[in-house]
């Protein structure tokens, strides 16, 4: 992995990114809503570019905020290639967010597991972006080892390595689209034996680790619209196959296979494919905010049309039920018809009295 070369390129391209590339608007918001220790943990000024994102929108957009979750021995700023392509295709830079969950850019380090601390860090960052943007839903893209970490952050529940720590309920309803890029969702083919921390059987990338079993036990929890699995046949880090399975596949994920790309190329040189996935549901057009020259006028027209469509439905459904209830009540009042049976009783009692005259006729017959 040539991460040092990438870091040098970052420094040459924009030295202002040293420390973080968080917009001052986002920074001020964080300081207002979180403790200094929490802000420091999210910003990561100890790294080359420990975090990115934020800022007020300057124009209307049809895209949702997206949280990038980097992979092993990486950091937020190293996703600049992906961010650059997104921006070139009109995706607002204010809607691209990332924080660093590990020790950042460094020579390959195998003593790293998918610990509760890393999962909680990403979980809280996702929740932060939801609060900051006010978006009903956001998108999440997990790269390499960042994919299983992001999936666990979305899944919630208890930490694998510490059952006393509860992450919280599932975030599925708040995630529109999830994308795994070269993700180690079934482990790594390099972890055939549980060597080093990265391949441990608890929170490592060994095929049968407890962590992987935990996130692969459920299906379709990563998103409310669709989840994608972007993998390459030429990946030599995670591998295309691991333990007899496709290393990057996960239950419910829709595979998008590329040929011949190595691990890094799959992560950073497929940005256009990743953006296409994010925009698949509406082809870049929001369901609630149609695109157009007079966007705001069209939104108002759309909402008015929607209200006219909804009102009849709200009144039409309960009315038949109420009418049926009122008509049904008189049918239950039928018992009064039984009253005539009681009036017929006196007629039966009167019949014996009419039979008395024949006795009077018998007496004259004897005289």
From TrEMBL:
Compositional bias segments (type: Basic residues): 319-330, 350-367
Alphabetized UniProt keyword annotations: Signal
Pfam families, sorted: Lipase_2 (PF01674)
GO BP field: lipid catabolic process
InterPro entries reported for this sequence: AB_hydrolase_fold, Lipase_EstA/Esterase_EstB
Region feature (Disordered): 303-367
Keyword Signal: yes
UniProt-listed Gene3D superfamilies: alpha/beta hydrolase
A GO MF term: lipase activity
First and last residue of the signal peptide: 1-19
Composition-biased stretches (Basic and acidic residues): 303-312
PANTHER family in alphabetical order: FASTING INDUCED LIPASE, LIPASE RELATED
Protein name as catalogued: AB hydrolase-1 domain-containing protein
Organism: Caenorhabditis nigoni
Gene that this polypeptide is encoded by: Cnig_chr_IV.g14134
């Amino acid at each position: 992995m040539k991460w040092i070369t990438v870091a040098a390129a970052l420094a040459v391209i924009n030295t202002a990114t040293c420390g973080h590339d968080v917009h001052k608007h986002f920074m001020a918001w964080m300081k207002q809503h979180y403790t200094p220790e929490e802000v420091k943990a999210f910003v990561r000024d100890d790294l080359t570019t420990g975090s990115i994102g934020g800022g007020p929108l300057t124009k209307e957009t049809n895209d949702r905020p997206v949280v990038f979750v980097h992979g092993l021995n990486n950091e937020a700023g190293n996703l600049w290639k992906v961010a650059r392509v997104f921006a070139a295709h009109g995706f607002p830079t204010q809607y691209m967010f990332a924080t660093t969950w590990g020790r950042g850019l460094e020579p390959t380090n195998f003593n790293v597991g998918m610990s509760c601390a890393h999962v909680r860090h990403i979980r809280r960052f996702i929740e932060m972006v939801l609060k900051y943007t006010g978006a009903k839903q956001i998108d999440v893209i997990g790269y390499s080892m960042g994919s299983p970490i992001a999936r666990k952050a979305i899944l919630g529940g208890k930490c694998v390595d510490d059952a006393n720590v509860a992450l919280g309920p599932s975030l599925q309803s708040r995630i529109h689209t999830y994308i795994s890029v070269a993700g180690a969702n079934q482990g790594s083919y390099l972890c055939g034996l549980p060597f080093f921390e990265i391949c441990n059987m608890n929170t490592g990338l060994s095929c049968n680790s407890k962590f992987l079993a935990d996130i692969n036990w459920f299906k379709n929890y990563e998103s409310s619209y669709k989840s994608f699995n972007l993998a390459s046949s030429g990946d030599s880090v995670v591998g295309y196959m691991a333990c007899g399975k496709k290393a990057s596949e996960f239950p419910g994920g829709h595979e998008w296979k590329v040929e011949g790309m190595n691990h890094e190329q799959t992560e950073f040189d497929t940005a256009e494919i990743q953006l296409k996935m994010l925009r698949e549901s509406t082809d870049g057009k929001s369901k609630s905010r149609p695109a157009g020259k007079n966007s705001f006028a069209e939104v108002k027209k759309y909402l008015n049309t929607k209200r006219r469509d909804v009102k009849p439905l709200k009144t039409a459904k309960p009315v038949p039920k109420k009418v049926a209830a009122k008509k049904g009540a008189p049918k239950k009042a039928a018992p009064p018809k039984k009253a005539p049976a009681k009036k017929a009783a006196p007629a039966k009692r009167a019949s014996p009295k009419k039979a008395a005259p024949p006795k009077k006729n018998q007496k004259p017959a004897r005289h």
